[in-house]
Amino acid sequence: MRNEAQILDRALSLHNMGDIAGAAKLYERIIKKNPHNLQAVHFLGVAEAASGNLARAKLLMKQSLEVASTNVDFIENYAAVLHRAGEHDELVHLCRHALPFAPASLALLHAGAAGHLALGQFQEAVELLTRLIKHHPHHFPAHVMLGSALAKSRHHDQALASYHRALELQPRFAEAHLDIGTIHFANRRHGEALAAYDRAIAIRPDLVDAWVGRGNALLDLGRIEEATAAYDQAVALRPQLASAWCGKGNALLRSGRQHDAVIAFDNAIAAEPGFAEAWVGRGTAALFLGRHDDASASFDRAIACNPQLAGAWLGKGQVSYQQKRYEEALAAWEKAIVLNPDQAEIAAACLRIKMHLCDWTDFETGCETVRSAVRNSRLVSPLMLVAVPSTPIEQLQCARSWVTHHHSGTGRLPGRNERRDQGRIRLAYLSADFHQHATSHLIAGVLEHHDREVFEVTAISIGPDDGSEMRRRVVSAFDRFIDAKPLGDAEIADMIHRLEIDILVDLKGFTQDARTGVFARRPAPLQVNYLGFPGTMGAEFIDYIVADRHVIPEGEAEAYQEKIVWMPESYQPNDRNRAIAEEVGPRAVHGLPEDAFVFCCFNDNYKITPEAFSAWMRILGAVEGSVLWLFEDNSAAAGNLRAAAARRGIDPRRLVFAGRLPPDVHLARQRCADLFLDTLPYGAHTTASDALWACLPVLTCRGQTFAGRVGVSLLNAIRLPELVTETPEAYERLAIELAHDRQRLAALRAKLAVNRLRTPLYDTTEYTRQLETAYAAIMRRYRAGLPPDHIRLPGETSCP
Questions:
Q1: What pTM was estimated for this model as a whole?
Q2: Which end of the chain has fewer CB atoms at under 10 Å, N or C?
Q3: Distance CA 693, CA 226 (A)
Q4: How far apart are CA 63 and CA 28, in angstroms?
Q5: 357: DSSP letter
Q6: Mean pLDDT by 10 residues, the chain (800 residues)
Q7: Hey, what CATH topology would domain 258-407 get?
Q8: 425-567 against 587-762: fold identical
């Protein structure tokens, strides 16, 4: 026995000195002679664990505990092995068994807490760590682990307190600063998050997760170039780090560099094939590039990797939305809302989809939810808000929140060293719509009529080439046409800056495929919001908005971030040379009764609200045999509108739906209608110009915002103010009166036919001169060193 004890002492001595192999041999020697020597059996298990043989270690240590079940040292060592082996259930059970007779054991409290954390049992982990700290208040790792447990259970303030106590004990523990940054980032305190990540990096420049966190914070602050540099540093430290490549992909997306973003996301996926966020990013990039099938497949992979990821369902809905598969889009976005109820932007998108479908279930509640979100400075797409009842001030607040979130940290290009006071004014239009699109139909004539002795006119095209005649016409209308679609925002801005463009005009605003990031870099000294978006951009980097006194009365100027250029007539350009097909065919060709009064509205379906539709049904009810001719964007909307008519006591067959036709044929068929009925709060814009050009009278009601007043602007410019009403009741009344008084309507139609080519609305040449006068005026102020101010052009007509 004495010899055995001496050998055990020698083995333990070797073990303590780090000679694990030597100690193990002695333990084996003892066990061979005495298999019941519990210490030799147990510490041989400890030695096996140190050598990485966890399975045998567990077997030996479990054997020792079968006899010495209350030996705290044995239990602590076994707990450590279970922790290393990832046997968390058994670890938790072991610690629960042992703690009653070793309540202050640091090792058991720590191991038990670690096991609970691994199992997602955060409250249990917090309880054990709180006990540990009570007995061992200076045990630094316990404070760190407690911070982690509290953070994971979303007790963020308490978690921060724990991390700060840990840093009092060990101020240069970089990982604690990293975790503090992660908590701040989760709570959208991006400035504090960035400071914490920077402290972590100052202590440990090779802490790659801190570089990724820094990139994430910078990206959310809109400091895209700095974010990209942070991700690049993370990639340099660990080239196969998926989160770094994913972050870089998101930064490239925000920069408009979709092709490069796809490569970054592919690198992330190669490093971690199950990384759902990278698949979402890849899908988003593919969607921007118009690769819908690729985008859809990527979002499906993301969902397969993580069905609870709201962003994946959001992306899946975006693909369906762009393909006009509205019901699929709604299902996907409603799933995203369930997963992330706090996303006001997604809730607004769901409302927009239901508007496309003319599904007005809980419409008023949905509208109020969106407006409430805006009033509370939550993110909602400004394009969404203009389509629902809202005020100019709410639209300003919405736009400001959007721009602040997406562009507040965007770096600006240096200003010019000197002003160009000589030579032609360098004017550039930026748009994604230089093809067969409503914007080109409106502005093509203006582009052709610009005075080339005064202006040098450049196109910055960020959209597709559809090969259409309109594309060819627009390209030939410019002095310089630049296809910038493949370029990122920074590259486009640099190019504009090098070209020394004086006035950069945004024809997109917040509409689809906008590149607001270009303007945020301030590549031109004067930047103008024009035509594409019916409202304020809410951005200090947009100097002017082109309007008229109908769409923006002087008393509402404070609701616009921009200074206002008030055109003397309608702000909206029109092309006097638009072709109208000769043959339209009888009404029957279009599904219309020959002898009925035909009310018409070819606005997109999402502009039809339940209030507007109810007014139309009352009008139909008052005009016997009349029909309502509507544009059919999707069959579901047509079905819902027919059902809504029936609920209002109108035969659904009195609704007739029109599909898409080539522009000249579409214009011609409007001759089959008697009266165009406008919508609110988002009225007819190009569709009203189309109707008036085809000599179809348009009846409108003055709305509360820019988007609801364009009809008023057009009718005054064509000198038909008698078709403008001021209240919904007057609108209904006049529609009914005109339907019953064919002679009065015929007189209006005859007046329209005469005025069409005699009044300002379709005088493209004079409109262009007025617009150029506005450009020259804002340029004079700039050259004189004066800040932007409202521009009132001479020759304005009086307006009600």
A1: 0.82
A2: N
A3: 51
A4: 15
A5: T
A6: 74 80 81 79 76 79 74 75 78 76 78 78 81 83 83 86 89 91 90 95 96 95 91 97 97 91 97 97 94 96 96 95 94 93 89 96 95 93 95 97 88 76 90 96 97 97 95 97 93 96 97 94 97 97 98 97 98 95 91 96 97 98 97 96 98 97 95 97 97 98 98 98 98 98 97 96 97 97 95 64
A7: 1.25.40
A8: yes
